[in-house]
Every structure is written in structure tokens, then in C-alpha cells.
Specification:
alpha+beta; Alpha-Beta Plaits; eight-stranded antiparallel barrel; 8 helices; 8 strands; 35% helix
Length: 253
């Protein structure tokens, strides 16, 4: 009897220090994204040999727009850039797949049968030092990226969040995005599903670096913005910024 009583006391004592976890009815991704549209995005980072960057861009310009324009492939080229500040000699491509994972699989299977694309990949491989990609969903409170005229520079701000904080990030930014739409600078907001997890990407457009500086300074004059920064900074493990220049093939100019 004494042993059983002691076990019950230990169990009760431990329960005081165990955080209760509220059961969730849905995955985080379904709570944060546009369920009715099922768009999937792929972002590609290609680190190019410095002496090959011009040839790489020319190669991409000959192939990527044709895939974008061909209705046979259920995908769209959202944008393609070279980094200007940040990682050097890097190309960034952003694709959208309307229809989610089935559309992605369909495109991959069809491209395997595309002789021109196979030759493109072989030639491209000779020019690269490394490459990686991520599959992304878009936040429901961001606008869908649409083609725009230039000239613009683009900033890709990437945030590695602490695991378990994506919902909290989304709650703050659902209110914060209204502060950042005055100059049409907000292009798209995404979070990772495959690749580096708990990764958020915010894509912004500016006329030039001075416009970026002026726009970012002006937002601090709006009541409520400082609160967003105060509460979201502790959620971040790491962050970086790329300033990017669109290539000729990019729908986002």
C-alpha cells in the first residue's frame, strides 16, 4: 500500500511540471495557407561558378520561359534572379504549381521525357558549384505573387524560426502585413514544407536601394509596427537578406 501511495504522489508531483499540450484539429500548414487554392511553390538556389554566370543566365533564358508558357506543364515561373548583395554568384528561381503535389509530380514526370530539358540540365550541371531547393506554401494573408513591370530590385528575407513557433509568427504577421503594403512592396510570403523546415521567406520589391531604405524607415512611424518586431524577433533563430536583380526571363521585373 505504501509503495502504491508513493507512486501516486510522484505522479501527481511530476504532473505539476508537465506542460499540457492542447490537441490540434488540423496541421499547421492548413491553418496558415490558402486551402482553397492548393498552390505549391518551389524555390531553387543555384550557386554558379563565377566565370559561368553569364552563360548560365543565357542558358536559362532559352529554356525556362518556354516551360512557363507551355500549358502542357501545370507550373508557372514566378521569378528568376541573380543575387546582388548577400550570397554572390547565385541564381534564385521561384516556381508555382497550381494543384499542389500532384501538379509537381506531373511536371517532373513530363520533364524527364523532354529532350531539350535533359540537355539543359546536363549543360547547367557543368556550371554549378552546388544547388538546393525547398517546397513552400504561401501564407493566406499575403497576396499571390503576380508579374510586375520594372525596373525593380527584390529583397528575399529568410527567417529560420524556432520549432513550434510558426503559428505564432503567422498570427503576428497577419496583422503586420497591412503596415507593409503602402508602396506595393509586398510580393509574397511563404513557409517551407520540405527542405529546411520552419523556414519563412518574405519577398519584397523596391525601385532601388534608397527606396528600400526610405520604405523601411517609414514603417517605424506607424503605430503598432514596433510591437510586431518586439514579439517576432524572439521567434527567430537565424535570418538573412538577399538583394536580387531579375533576369530577362523573369515575370517579376
Amino acid at each position: 500500500w505504501f509503495c502504491c501511495s508513493r507512486d501516486r504522489e510522484d505522479s501527481w508531483f511530476k504532473s505539476l511540471f508537465v506542460r499540457k499540450v492542447d490537441p490540434r484539429k488540423d496541421a499547421h500548414s492548413n491553418l496558415l495557407t490558402k486551402n482553397e487554392e492548393s498552390n505549391l511553390y518551389k524555390i531553387q538556389f543555384h550557386n554558379v561558378k563565377p566565370e559561368c554566370l553569364d552563360a548560365y543566365n543565357k542558358l536559362c533564358e532559352g529554356v525556362l520561359p518556354s516551360i512557363h508558357a507551355d500549358k502542357y506543364y501545370p507550373c508557372e515561373l514566378v521569378g528568376t534572379w541573380n543575387t546582388w548583395y548577400g550570397e554572390q554568384d547565385q541564381a534564385v528561381h521561384l516556381w508555382r504549381y497550381r494543384g499542389g503535389y500532384p501538379a509537381l509530380t506531373e511536371v517532373m514526370n513530363k520533364l524527364r521525357q523532354n529532350k531539350e530539358f535533359t540537355e539543359y540540365r546536363m549543360e547547367r550541371g557543368k556550371m554549378l558549384l552546388s544547388r538546393k531547393n525547398q517546397l513552400l506554401l504561401e501564407f493566406s494573408f499575403w497576396n499571390e505573387p503576380v508579374p510586375r513591370d520594372g525596373p525593380n530590385i527584390y529583397e528575399l528575407r529568410s527567417y529560420q524560426l524556432r520549432p513550434g513557433t510558426m503559428i505564432e509568427w503567422g498570427n503576428y504577421w497577419a496583422r503586420a502585413i497591412k503596415y507593409r503594403q503602402g508602396n506595393r512592396e509586398a510580393v509574397g510570403g511563404f513557409f517551407s514544407q520540405i527542405g529546411d523546415l520552419y523556414m519563412v521567406h518574405h519577398l519584397w520589391a523596391y525601385k532601388d536601394l534608397q527606396s528600400r531604405e526610405d520604405t523601411r524607415n517609414a514603417v517605424w512611424q506607424q503605430e503598432g509596427w514596433h510591437e510586431v518586431v518586439y514579439y517576432t524577433v524572439p521567434l527567430i533563430q537565424r535570418m538573412d537578406s538577399r538583394i536580387m536583380i531579375p533576369t530577362k526571363a523573369s515575370p517579376l521585373q
